[in-house]
């Protein structure tokens, strides 16, 4: 495995970050998770747009131009000889001193890790996941804006811990008002009487790129789609529920908090959307 580290391509053993790096000390940085399908970077422009927007919002200067970043991604994939896989692109504030002042960090660090990825089995896509809602609340725009894909993932890690304790793969996080926000690392959709719903991002969700792809697919396939807030009750009584994410793609949910969703397996619209999603990435 070859890792991109500030312009160099180094081995896994040599890919080291300083203990004074503010990404490590404070979660001060941003990242993207990107898929490679058939040797192509899926939605590269969209991921880089989100990365550079996140950087601007937190006043982090990425030392590479957009084109240079794209080139670095391509070269990292090439050196790892990957046709299908996953890229983790990290930009941290870089090494500074122990204080939290970013002025003490002269240069951001850019790291690109590319590797194989197998997150869920084909059975999981067909049968659906069991999920639970958790007590951890999503930070909303008056705290850290959920549009910023920051390295500060403690909130999400706490959701993942609750998912682990419940023995499920992904959990559902609400916002402080009790509206459904998203999973620990996935957006959420529900379907009721043929209409597809997903929470608007202001409720407390990342502007997911897979989410946007599904919204486009719904328009193309003629499924009505509404971005509106909904509650756990709406999830329990939905005909279908699914999560979307770069790693998870489109994964059905068959049970939430002990309530069986629809027929207790991936429903017809979810199955159709997954099939069409896979066609678009090929
Ligand atoms: N997840 N919500 C959160 C909190 C996320 O971390 C992610 C990405 C998503 C889905 O966004 P997208 O479709 O752009 O991946 C939603 C990880 C990093 C991943 O799936 O790779």
UniProtKB/TrEMBL annotation:
Q: What is its EC number?
A: 2.6.1.42
Pfam families recorded: Aminotran_4
A molecular function GO annotation: branched-chain-amino-acid transaminase activity
Q: What class of enzyme is it?
A: transferase
Organism per entry: Paenibacillus glycinis
Which reaction equation describes what this protein catalyses?
Answer: L-leucine + 2-oxoglutarate = 4-methyl-2-oxopentanoate + L-glutamate; L-isoleucine + 2-oxoglutarate = (S)-3-methyl-2-oxopentanoate + L-glutamate; L-valine + 2-oxoglutarate = 3-methyl-2-oxobutanoate + L-glutamate
Q: Which family does it belong to?
A: Belongs to the class-IV pyridoxal-phosphate-dependent aminotransferase family.
**Where does this protein act, in terms of pathway?**
Amino-acid biosynthesis; L-valine biosynthesis; L-valine from pyruvate: step 4/4; Amino-acid biosynthesis; L-leucine biosynthesis; L-leucine from 3-methyl-2-oxobutanoate: step 4/4; Amino-acid biosynthesis; L-isoleucine biosynthesis; L-isoleucine from 2-oxobutanoate: step 4/4
Cofactor field: pyridoxal 5'-phosphate
Please explain the role this protein plays, according to its UniProt record: Acts on leucine, isoleucine and valine.
Q: Which InterPro entries does this one have?
A: Aminotrans_IV (IPR001544), Aminotrans_IV_CS (IPR018300), Aminotransferase-like (IPR036038), B_amino_transI (IPR005785), BCAT-like_C (IPR043132), BCAT-like_N (IPR043131), Class-IV_PLP-Dep_Aminotrnsfr (IPR050571)
The UniProt keywords, alphabetically, are: Amino-acid biosynthesis, Aminotransferase, Branched-chain amino acid biosynthesis, Pyridoxal phosphate, Transferase
Q: What is the protein's given name?
A: Branched-chain-amino-acid aminotransferase
């Amino acid at each position: 495995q070859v890792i991109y580290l500030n312009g160099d391509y180094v081995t896994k053993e040599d890919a080291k970050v300083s203990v004074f790096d503010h990404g490590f000390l404070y979660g001060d940085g941003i990242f993207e998770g990107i898929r490679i399908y058939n040797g192509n970077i899926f939605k590269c422009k969209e991921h880089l747009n989100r990365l550079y927007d996140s950087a601007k919002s937190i006043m982090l200067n990425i030392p590479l131009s957009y084109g240079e970043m794209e080139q670095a991604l391509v070269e990292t994939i090439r050196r790892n000889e990957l046709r299908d896989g996953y890229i983790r692109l990290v930009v941290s504030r870089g090494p500074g001193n122990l204080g939290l002042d970013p002025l003490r960090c002269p240069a951001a660090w850019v790291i690109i890790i590319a590797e194989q990825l197998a997150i869920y089995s084909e059975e999981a896509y067909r049968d659906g996941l069991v999920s639970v809602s958790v007590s951890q609340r999503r930070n909303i725009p008056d705290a850290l804006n959920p549009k910023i894909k920051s390295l500060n993932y403690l909130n999400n890690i706490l959701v993942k811990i609750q998912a682990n304790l419940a023995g499920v793969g992904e959990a559902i996080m609400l916002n402080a008002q009790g509206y459904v926000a998203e999973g620990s690392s996935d957006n959420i959709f529900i379907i009721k009487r043929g209409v597809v719903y997903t929470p608007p991002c202001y409720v407390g969700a990342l502007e997911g790129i897979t989410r946007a792809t599904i919204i486009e697919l719904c328009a193309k396939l003629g499924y009505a789609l509404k971005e509106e807030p909904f509650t756990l009750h709406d999830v329990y009584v939905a005909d279908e529920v699914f999560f979307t994410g770069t790693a998870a793609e489109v994964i059905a949910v068959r049970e939430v908090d002990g309530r069986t969703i629809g027929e207790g397996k991936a429903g017809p619209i979810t199955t159709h959307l997954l099939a069409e999603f896979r066609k678009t990435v090929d």
